[in-house]
Specification:
Low-confidence stretches: none
Helix content: 25-40%
Structural class: alpha+beta
Shape: elongated
Oligomer: single chain
Number of strands: 3
């Protein structure tokens, strides 16, 4: 498997870091980035997940906002349902 992965690092003293990893581990949806693994090192929880070549929803929202071109409700509904 030769696919790109990303690593999200969360400080372990953040109370919900482990919870976030556990929730991500359980999610299965074609529009949600897939969780691959997690591990702890030097006070951080690292979450390994698939790379989203087109970016994430927040990026799409920011681009649309800056362009003053709101996202169409139908498009957003396709992404999240």
């Amino acid at each position: 498997e030769n696919q790109r992965r990303v690593l999200k690092a969360l400080e372990l003293d953040r109370g919900d870091a482990r919870r976030e990893a556990e929730i991500m581990r359980q999610l299965r949806h074609p529009q949600i980035i897939r969780f691959r693994d997690s591990f702890e090192e030097k006070g951080f929880l690292a979450i390994v997940m698939d790379h989203a070549a087109c970016g994430d929803l927040l990026k799409r929202v920011d681009v649309a906002k800056k362009a003053e071109h709101p996202l169409q409700e139908e498009q957003v509904m396709r992404w999240v349902t």
